[in-house]
Design brief:
alpha+beta, Uridine Diphospho-n-acetylenolpyruvylglucosamine Reductase, domain 2, Uridine Diphospho-n-acetylenolpyruvylglucosamine Reductase, domain 3, Uridine Diphospho-n-acetylenolpyruvylglucosamine Reductase, domain 1, 3 domains, 8 helices, 17 strands, 27% helix
Length: 314
């Protein structure tokens, strides 16, 4: 099995040296050696398995939120997960959903609201996908992905696709057990199963409108990757960064948002990953020195990065 086998499989979608800035919400990221879009779960499985067969490393991207891709890009194969199928089984007072991992959270939220299904209003306006949301237990407004989750279909390197229960996934704040296996078994979320309750559409629309209004006043517009850091126990990352005097700090084309300090913005679309990493390092250092708190990234760094800390002005 060779690289050409993958190119032949989906030659109309295969691109070499594709800039990943075109596929991330922060509009940042260097080239992928090879990029292919998977439009179904079967295609996603086939691409990952073929890459494994030939010893090619691969990275799966969904909506490109919550990731910072290095300026050097990502080696090997990058699979953009565009799987979109959602199966609804609606009963009198409840519903069961089977959702492909490439489905965008905001799209699913709107569809559920239109169908009178309660449970995804928190995701209105969020650009990430179900797959990433499961891995990182994404959430907002007191609700998390795990809240209504029934089961997840997962594929790991060397294993046939299998179903994992919430207990096996060991969900916690912005974390799941899938992250523990990322470096070794490279698990891929294929399909997520949810159990939702029915509610009046007007109630859901009102709640969603409240969430949208809150996001507009508390989160900055523009190209970002979402919340930069996890909130430490009993505190908020944004408050700590602001208290450290970094709100509005600029490095190159990146800025710590003056609206919410836990959001870093690609101000004019010209920021580099190096700019963002410099601000990340500065925020972690300042908060550690001033408050003895270690801020943990909520986003994921992808691609090739220098081992040494990035300094402002470097």
């Amino acid at each position: 099995m060779t690289t050409m086998d993958i190119l032949t499989l989906m030659k109309d979608r295969a691109r070499r040296n594709e800039l990943l800035a075109r596929h991330t919400t922060a509009r940042i990221g260097g080239p992928a050696d090879l990029l292919i879009e998977a439009r179904t779960i079967d295609e996603l499985i086939a691409l990952a398995q073929r890459a494994d067969d030939i010893g090619m490393t691969y990275t799966v991207l969904g909506g490109g939120a919550n990731v910072l891709v290095s300026d050097r890009g990502i080696r090997g194969l990058v699979i953009i997960n565009r799987s979109k199928e959602v199966k609804y089984t609606v009963r009198d007072i409840s519903a069961h959903l089977e959702v492909d991992s490439g489905v965008v959270l905001a799209t699913l939220a709107r569809d559920c609201i239109e169908r009178g299904l309660m449970g995804f209003e928190w995701a209105i306006g969020i650009p990430g996908t179900i797959g990433g949301a499961v891995v990182g237990n994404a959430g907002a407004h007191g609700v998390e992905t795990s809240t209504n989750l029934n089961m997840v279909k997962v594929m790991r390197r060397g294993f046939a696709p299998e179903y994992w229960t919430p207990r096996q996934l060991a969900f916690s704040y912005r974390k799941s057990a899938l992250k523990q296996y990322a470096a070794t078994e490279r698990p891929i979320v294929l399909v997520a199963l949810f159990d939702l309750k029915r509610d009046h559409r007007t109630n859901l629309e009102r709640r969603a409108a409240e969430y949208i209004a809150k996001r507009k006043t508390s989160q900055p517009p523009g190209a970002t990757m979402g919340s930069m850091f996890k909130n430490p126990p009993g505190d908020y990352a944004g408050r700590l960064i602001e208290a450290a005097g970094l709100k509005g700090t600029v490095h190159g084309g990146a800025m710590v948002s003056p609206v919410h300090a836990n959001f870093f913005v690609n101000v004019n679309g010209n920021a580099t990953a190096h700019d963002f990493k410099a601000l990340i390092d500065q925020a972690q250092t300042a908060v550690s020195e001033q408050f003895n708190i270690n801020l943990e990234l909520e986003i994921e760094l992808l691609g090739e990065w220098d081992v040494t800390t990035t300094k402002i002005g470097a």
